[in-house]
């Protein structure tokens, strides 16, 4: 029926469109398009919001709403100056009845962080091995906070505990990558437990920015009564305690990766051989490739090593090193390969994001062609200069007025023309 709108669509069809909106931003934009659409929304506002929330959070919507409600109760307890008060975990409900505006914003943030971490997780699951190292043990612990954490986790089912442990190991691996490749000088030694305490959003931002800055900013939001000695054992100690209490075998680290995802390809993955989190693409082209040298990731002699076969030992390879040490950069070489040399069959494009291994493989496949084309360009320049010089000399010798020809040739040709003039005179005699 179209009783409530002036659109060429029935109300039920408009309601179906509401149902499939992917985000709350899309819902807001759709509502602003027409008063008639807004009138349809007013008929079933809660149902529409629930459907959009499900599209945002997926099947984990009940758990996400449980987390949002727990955060709200925890914030209320802190506002009452009673941070030591135990906050019970809200019951998980399979039916979400009402979603407030604040809850919708929190769901969007949670979903954004989860999506980004899932993509990173899929790459690491495929190409990295989990190295389960011992955390920094400490004899001092805040028993009250640990007990609260145990109480919170104790309400989880056994499979959920194992999934949380898998998430913990995944975050620990991410933090170790940030420490190795990032810039931890401003933060000092970042414990894995502290990173877990500040939350997944800060960890994701640190990974994407290749910096520990987001972790530093999040440090100001941690409770003041959380001792530094609790950081290393955060989540790890309570999980171990509960798993042992329930007599659940702790799976090997290489099996924990399969506790979360059944597929390993990320939604936004384009590189099929990503072995690290560092990728290079058009948005950072060409400065990102030049950073390979400045960061010490690749040296000129290593670029020469990308030549195939014994060509890397040739004099031409040495000349390439000299060029890379002066004014030619690796990004210029890659740019010329894309513009002039890359074969039509090669599906690699500038818009693709490539890992370090793919960059090396791509350059190696065309580096000898690039060297050949560079030589041809050099020989063409030399031939053009030689041809120009010969024409100038011929014109200077055949001209009736030799002084005028000499004046038009320039200083370098002056001496050559004089010598040639002397030779011609001697032949004439």
Comma- or semicolon-separated keywords:
mainly alpha; 429 residues; 20 helices; two-stranded antiparallel sheet
Termini separation: 112 Å
Radius of gyration: 34 Å
Outline type: flat
> What order do the SSEs take from the amino end to the carboxyl end, as H and E?
HHHHHHHHHHHHHEHHHHEHHH
Mean pLDDT: 66
What's the arrangement of secondary structure elements?
Elements: H1 11-19, H2 24-31, H3 35-43, H4 45-57, H5 61-79, H6 101-127, H7 143-154, H8 158-181, H9 192-198, H10 200-209, H11 213-219, H12 236-245, H13 253-256, E1 279-280, H14 287-294, H15 300-304, H16 315-326, H17 330-341, E2 354-355, H18 356-398, H19 402-409, H20 411-428
Antiparallel strand pairs: 1-2
3D architecture notes:
With 429 residues, this protein is mostly helical. Among the domains are: 1-59, no CATH class; 111-259, no CATH class; 279-367, no CATH class. It is 62% helix and 1% strand. The protein is built from 20 helices and 2 strands. The chain has a two-stranded antiparallel ribbon with strand order 1-2. The chain starts with 10 loop residues before the first helix and ends with a helix. This is F-box domain-containing protein. It comes from Pleurotus ostreatus (strain PC15).
Give a quick precis of the structure.
With 429 residues, the protein is mainly alpha-helical.
């Amino acid at each position: 029926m179209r009783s409530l709108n002036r659109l060429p669509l029935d109300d039920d069809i408009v309601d179906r469109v509401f149902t499939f909106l992917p985000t709350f931003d899309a819902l807001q934009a759709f509502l602003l398009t027409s008063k008639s659409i807004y009138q349809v929304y007013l008929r079933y506002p809660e149902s529409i919001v629930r459907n959009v929330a499900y599209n945002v959070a997926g099947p984990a919507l009940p758990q996400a709403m449980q987390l949002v409600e727990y955060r709200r109760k925890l914030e209320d307890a802190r506002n009452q100056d009673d941070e030591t008060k135990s906050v019970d975990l809200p019951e998980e409900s399979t039916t979400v009845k009402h979603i407030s505006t604040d809850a919708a914003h929190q769901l969007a943030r949670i979903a954004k962080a989860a999506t980004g971490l899932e993509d990173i997780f899929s790459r690491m699951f495929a190409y990295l091995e989990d190295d389960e190292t011992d955390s920094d043990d400490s004899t001092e612990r805040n028993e009250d906070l640990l007990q609260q954490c145990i109480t919170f986790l104790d309400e989880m089912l056994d499979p959920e505990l194992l999934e949380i442990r898998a998430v913990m190991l995944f975050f620990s691996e991410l933090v170790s990558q940030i420490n190795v490749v990032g810039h931890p000088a401003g933060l000092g030694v970042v414990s894995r437990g502290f990173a877990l305490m500040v939350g997944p959003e800060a960890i994701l931002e640190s990974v994407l920015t290749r910096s520990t800055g987001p972790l530093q900013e999040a440090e100001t939001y941690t409770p003041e009564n959380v001792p530094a000695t609790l950081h290393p054992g955060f989540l790890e100690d309570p999980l171990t305690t509960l798993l042992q209490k329930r007599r659940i075998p702790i799976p090997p680290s290489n099996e924990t990766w399969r506790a979360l995802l059944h597929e390993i390809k990320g939604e936004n993955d384009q590189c099929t051989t990503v072995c690290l989190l560092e990728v290079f693409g058009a948005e950072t082209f060409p400065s990102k490739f030049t950073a390979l040298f400045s960061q010490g990731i690749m040296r000129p002699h290593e670029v020469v090593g990308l030549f195939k076969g014994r060509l890397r030992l040739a004099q031409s390879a040495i000349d390439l090193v000299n060029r890379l040490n002066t004014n030619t950069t690796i990004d210029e070489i890659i740019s010329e390969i894309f513009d002039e040399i890359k074969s039509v069959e090669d599906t690699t494009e500038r818009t693709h994001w490539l890992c370090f291994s793919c960059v090396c493989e791509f350059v190696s496949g065309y580096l000898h062609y690039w060297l050949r084309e560079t030589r041809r360009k050099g020989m063409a320049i030399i031939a053009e200069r030689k041809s120009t010089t010969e024409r100038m000399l011929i014109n200077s010798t055949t001209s009736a007025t030799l002084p005028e020809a000499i004046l038009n040739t320039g200083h370098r040709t002056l001496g050559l023309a004089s010598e040639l003039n002397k030779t011609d005179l001697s032949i004439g005699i």
